Amino acid sequence: MERRIRKQLVAAGVAGAALAGVAVCRRQTALADLYATAVYPRLSGAVSRLSALVPFSLEEILAVAAAVAVIACLARLRRRWLPLLNIILWVVVWFYACWGLNYFRSSIFDRAGVRPATFETERFEAFLKEYVDGLNGSYVPVESIDTAALEREVKAFYDALPERWGLARPKAWQRPKHLLFDRLYSAVSVMGFVGPFFNEIQIGSDVLPLQYPFVYAHELSHLLGVSSEAEANYWAWKACTASASPAFRYAGYQALLPYVLSNAARVLPEEAYAAWAAGLRPEVVEAYREEQAHWDDLYSPVVGRIQHWIYNLYLKGNRISSGTANYNEVISIILSLDS
Length: 339
Hints:
- By secondary structure, the chain is mainly alpha-helical.
- It folds into two domains: 2-104, no CATH class; 118-337, no CATH class.
- The protein has helices spanning 2-27, 29-51, 58-75, 77-98, 108-112, 121-138, 147-159, 182-186, 212-223, 229-241, 246-267, 270-277, 282-298, 301-316, 330-337, and strands spanning 176-177, 192-195, 200-203.
- The termini are far apart.
């Protein structure tokens, strides 16, 4: 018994030391950048190579196994508190070692060598006009997506990015996984996510064909080391709109519409906003409404509010100070880097 306790204490001590290293990386961006550019690409390539051997999500299996282990320890807490502590500590260590340290890397603005753009009415209005022209002009009906062609194009896009952006290179075996609890994610409007423990991409089966290209490009950027949701949206937008496929290009423009609408409504006078929105092509507006109705039908308000609260805290705890509002900040990146 004493020997087992000593082993548990040693394991907890090692995990604690590892978390102390995480705390250092949290404060030393240079160390996090070193991890993101030198360690993570090799680590994620190796881990995702192994996880690709199975078609289903290992992340979900891990989540269930961890929950069962925690419940078992709680049932006998007086004798099992040390194993419970070790489970929690090592799950946290695993998270940061396999992906989470990317949260502490330099921002996309630092890597681009620019400052975030300050708001200028003329510049923003010029962006709105250019965006609407691109959105309306790119419209095509989209009823299905060639996922194999999409994967080739998006991976080629990321593979061609200059090294200064600090993203890992995509691998042939990194493909979306099937989810076991698909409807649970749809109930909270989660279309996809990257599993940080096994470096897997997961995309829900309820994602509409028109939404699939952007969701795939967004999640792949996370797998390549992007932690910011705004930056992931930016790269997804760039990857889709740079495509030779009319369907992929339109999907990129359409996916940005909620963020453009939100930003425009916040900064434009009511009449100016209404005049600008009136310029949207009717087919585009209809597609947007269909997407909203689709996810509203699947959404569970109670579960959704809980998930939003937890995820908001999670992001803020990992240096995404705006929390879930970070998704909306993609417009700032576009104005800073592309204008």
